């Protein structure tokens, strides 16, 4: 059976390689079905003349930008080969009389893009127009075709000339009218500056800016198209005068601010083929003399719903309140569709009635997931079931109940007491879309603050070693300050872990490897936990973006002070279990530098600090730091580094025990990322870091943090491939250690030992990681 299985695997491998080879050959022979007078369009180039007309770095970027707008696009390439065109040719090219397989291949492929498909005059005009939009008013373009066998390329020679700059900006509006005054009041924030280059995109953005400001002053019917920018380039000296005016055909209602009239809310709306139908509200449906809430079944508490409507009757319309209301209604996690309509009030001029048609989500839902896991010699699976109840108590609360179970077993290597396990558990959580607090505070009215409460239980059975019963409870608040800043305050975080059924074999090993004892220590920690996150990485136009997450966690501080806890005199207990007393702080800094449109440099610095005192000698096991693995030091396996220069421990003969933990952590990573072709990317990286102990441990000499900590950094390097599917990133990394902290101080750099030809060296030093998503 084994031989047969090996043969089958080999045959599949040969078939796959054969298919790849066939497609590659077809890709290389991409001109196979071209007629004698046809040429395959290979590429369009743009070259700016004269070479010194624009600074070199801007010139190259401008050429790339102009090449992107050329039409048509040549056939796509992957690793230099036209795979899709190859599939098309494998299917017989333009021969439509072939069989079903050939028709399928042609459908998956791509027809050849020919030189005859290229309209050079159209592209010349397109390039000239785009350069004029950037202020090169005297630009012109010529083009040439180069033919090499059956391949053809077109070179566009662009002559932009000298750029025109803004000499004067005037807002020519009627300052006696309210609209004119409101437009003039926006001028100090204008995007049009004297001395700046003429740029059509900036002019369009300026119109949008003025329109947005007017929208927040009530001009609901105003539009950017009602503004006209006239440009006078006749003054010479490559300068222009700009005049911003209002078009004479602007309708009268666009010139008047609008007031809010009646407000109608339909929270159980179901769209019909007739569109958004309404029913005439009854007087008793008027809530707080402000809102008509048409909810005959009382599905939602009116007060809670009204708190997320930011218009009041008689208010002046503002886009800010308009968007804020829509954002809140969408983020209540209760409505599938949110439709907002403004209708002129028939009884009052310049007044609009507001309609909110809200289509509810399904109130109850269930999701089931099965996950397969494989890592080295370990394999297992896990199943999760999640039940969700929306609007649980008529106040838009979300109640979730999750149950999970899984197992992992060792399928190779030496027997390890800590290798196989089964685990199962449950978690119940509820989220309120508001702050439940005795103190009145509103961190931000733009975003919905949330209060959460969670209770979870887990049973872990490492069958040959021990069992653990874990109980966790959390209560806290989560809120956003703005688009970039988020806060999470767990007012109470309780973790209680109780070991049971410790086997005799495991107890015997605890004397040899004290780390094993720490794993099965009873654990009880309680206290507040706060984290702050800042990121501007969503701003795609920035060259430098950042992500910062900091956190502070404490446990047992007040109670320890009250009881006078002192570990040396005997740990104090609650419910028969010693409680942890510590302060823990950590920070994660990330920097992303865009090098080009297809490459970037990503770097990360992680710092973890802690101080255990009173009732504790070190952090509890679940709170300790570790490093290594696919998202840390990729040249080392998870939990296989440190602390400090301590030598990793072994259980049994040559059976490495990877569970190194500590009280301090430092990690530095930098990674160059670039696109190869399409969705295929690659990366080269260097990782460095380690963990350390707060106090000396005779079983881990060299593990305590000292002033020479930087001499104990582990360093690894490697390369990897990434498959970017937009919705999912599949990552592979090959890494190897280049500095090993537990070697002799003068022999920690291991470059001289690298030998890729040695199978033993490869087995002990090359680490392969398969993961989902980027490491940072």
From TrEMBL:
It is found in: Membrane. Keywords: Cell outer membrane, Membrane, Signal, Transmembrane. Residues 404-751 form the Bacterial surface antigen (D15) domain. InterPro entries: Bac_surfAg_D15, D15-like. GO terms for cellular component: outer membrane. Its main location: membrane. It comes from the Bacteria. The keyword Transmembrane applies. It holds the Pfam family Omp85. The keyword Cytoplasm does not apply. This is BamA/TamA family outer membrane protein. It comes from Sphingobacterium phlebotomi.
